[in-house]
């Protein structure tokens, strides 16, 4: 038997059955083991996260149900001394905790939750109507700094809760009489909290303190954190894309009085930031105007969804002027980007997918800024409108609309080719959208803008220098 050369002999200490592994195979094996260990670490971390979230949810649900039961027992006690301290500490603290938990709104708990909200809100409304300061919940708004802080915190929570309840009042629940009733009570509370004139305990000495507390609350309403404009948007959109005042009652089973009360209150709360004393003193309304422009003015057929009685509030110059100037105060691209994100996040119908949301903003602004008669082709701008600002805003939105239409041209063509059964709806949508823009291509609209342009040119020649932007913007056609 021949012996192999020493350089070719292989000695293995793992036994005769083991085979040598190549370098590449060894590296691959090590890499796979490393990936497996990494996967096991991530799986363990994910499992811990799921367990932690689930344990938190389970404990929160258990504590919420327990607090709810104790709260029911407390409320149902006879001969309760309903002082403002009792309302704030004993009633509202646990109520605001368990009512904001998702488990309170499950199908099996919703009826109980609605009854609790009704009972709590009625107690607060009765308290606000009390002349006794010790029994009036809003007396905290004019009390010590600590009491004012407590009142403002709880009032903010109540406003957010009122907004969420308003958003739930859509087509799916409006047949529920209890939900409609609680929504009406909810909006009454929102109006009372944001209007200190409804507080019966006020005196001439604490009126200024009450105004300051209410203004802080209204400032919160104008922010995105409150969710007010988002919920108002959802409520208004529930009337349907082609709703008219005569059709709303047939679509939603709400009594006319309750419907008008809820809608009017929702619009009033949404417009509160524009009608405070701070706005009269020139306080910055950029945040509120941005929320209003992005979430309210982009509602398709906004003016057709609302009762005609409420349109003058939206047409008021104190609301319309900040909505127009917001495009000059903030980057236009940023606002239009947020509108595009909103459009992508919402489940749009045929009409909303045909017309971009910036197009609805254009149509709604034109409708709100003008008064016109379709039969006589005559009209005018609303009193005090800054026409230069109006032209700048309309031009900016129109440019963005053309850009959106060009980008979505192929997609819309695909939708039209595949959805042949929606052709009639699409054509009706486009026709109604063009009706919103009718004032733009009427002669009176062009004539009044030409008059403004001539006045600007003549004034420029007389002064021999260009007017500043502020001077131009404060020129309006009467």
Q: How are the secondary structure elements laid out?
A:
Blueprint: H1 23-75, H2 84-98, H3 110-128, H4 145-168, H5 177-193, H6 207-221, H7 228-237, H8 245-251, H9 256-271, H10 277-280, H11 286-296, H12 302-305, H13 311-315, H14 317-329, H15 332-345, H16 350-354, H17 357-369, E1 370-373, E2 378-381, H18 387-407, H19 409-418, H20 423-436, H21 443-463, H22 469-473
Antiparallel strand pairs: 1-2
Description:
It is flat and about 100 Å long. Mean pLDDT is 81; it is low at 241-253 and 464-478. The chain is 66% helix and 2% strand. Strand 1 (370-373) and strand 2 form a beta hairpin. It contains 22 helices and two strands. Strands 1-2 form a two-stranded antiparallel sheet. It has 478 residues and is mostly helical.
Q: Sheet with the most strands?
A: 2 strands, antiparallel
Give the termini separation.
119 Å
Structural class: mainly alpha
Mean pLDDT: 81
**Helical content (DSSP H or I, runs of 4+):** 55-70%
Name the strands of the widest sheet in spatial order.
1-2
The ordered string of helix (H) and strand (E) elements is HHHHHHHHHHHHHHHHHEEHHHHH
Topology, number of strands: 2
| Gyration radius, in Å | 31 Å
Strand content: under 5%
Which regions have little confidence, pLDDT < 50, spanning 5+ residues?
A: 241-253, 464-478
Shape estimate: flat
SS field, number of helical segments:
22
What's the short story on this structure?
The chain is built from 22 helices and two strands. The chain has helices at 23-75, 84-98, 110-128, 145-168, 177-193, 207-221, 228-237, 245-251, 256-271, 277-280, 286-296, 302-305, 311-315, 317-329, 332-345, 350-354, 357-369, 387-407, 409-418, 423-436, 443-463, 469-473, and strands at 370-373, 378-381.
């Amino acid at each position: 038997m021949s012996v192999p050369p020493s350089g070719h002999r292989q000695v293995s200490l793992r036994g005769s059955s083991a085979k040598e592994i190549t370098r590449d195979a060894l590296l691959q094996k090590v890499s796979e083991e490393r990936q497996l260990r990494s996967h096991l670490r991530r799986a363990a971390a994910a499992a811990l996260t799921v367990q932690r979230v689930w344990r938190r949810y389970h404990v929160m649900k258990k504590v919420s149900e327990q607090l709810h039961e104790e709260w029911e027992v407390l409320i149902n006690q006879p001969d309760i001394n309903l002082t403002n301290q009792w309302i704030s500490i004993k009633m509202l603290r646990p109520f605001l905790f368990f009512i904001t938990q998702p488990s309170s709104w499950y199908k099996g708990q919703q009826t109980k939750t609605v009854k609790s909200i009704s009972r709590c809100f009625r107690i607060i409304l009765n308290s606000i109507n009390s002349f006794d300061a010790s029994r009036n919940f809003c007396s905290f708004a004019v009390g010590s700094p600590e009491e004012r802080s407590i009142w403002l915190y709880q009032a903010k929570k109540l406003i957010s809760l009122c907004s969420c309840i308003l958003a739930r009042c859509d087509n799916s629940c409006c047949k529920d009489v209890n939900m409609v009733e609680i929504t009406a009570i909810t909006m009454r509370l929102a109006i009372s909290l944001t209007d200190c004139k409804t507080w019966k305990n006020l005196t001439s000495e604490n009126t200024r303190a009450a105004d300051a507390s209410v203004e802080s609350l209204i400032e919160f309403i104008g922010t995105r954190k409150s969710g007010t404009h988002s919920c108002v948007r959802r409520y208004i959109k529930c009337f349907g894309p082609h709703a008219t005042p005569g059709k709303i009652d047939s679509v939603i089973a709400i009594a006319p009085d309750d419907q008008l009360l809820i809608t009017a209150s929702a619009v009033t709360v949404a417009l509160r930031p524009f009608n405070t004393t701070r706005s009269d003193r020139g306080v910055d309304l950029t945040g509120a105007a941005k929320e209003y422009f992005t979430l309210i003015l982009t509602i398709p057929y906004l003016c057709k969804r609302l009762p005609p009685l409420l349109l003058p509030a939206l047409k008021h110059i104190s609301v319309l002027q900040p909505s127009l100037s917001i495009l000059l105060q903030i980057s236009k691209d940023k606002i239009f980007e947020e509108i595009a994100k909103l459009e992508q996040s919402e489940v749009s119908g045929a009409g909303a997918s045909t017309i971009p949301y910036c197009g609805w903003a254009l149509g709604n602004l034109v409708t709100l800024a003008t008064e016109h008669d379709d039969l006589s082709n005559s009209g005018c701008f609303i009193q005090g409108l800054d026409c230069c600002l109006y032209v700048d805003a309309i031009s900016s939105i129109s440019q963005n609309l053309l850009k959106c239409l060009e980008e979505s041209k192929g997609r819309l063509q695909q939708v039209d080719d595949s959805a042949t059964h929606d052709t009639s709806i699409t054509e009706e949508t486009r026709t109604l959208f063009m009706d919103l823009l009718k004032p733009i291509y009427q002669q009176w609209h062009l004539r009044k803008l030409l008059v403004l342009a001539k006045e600007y040119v003549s004034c420029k020649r007389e002064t021999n220098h260009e007017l500043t932007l502020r001077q131009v913007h404060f020129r309006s056609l009467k």
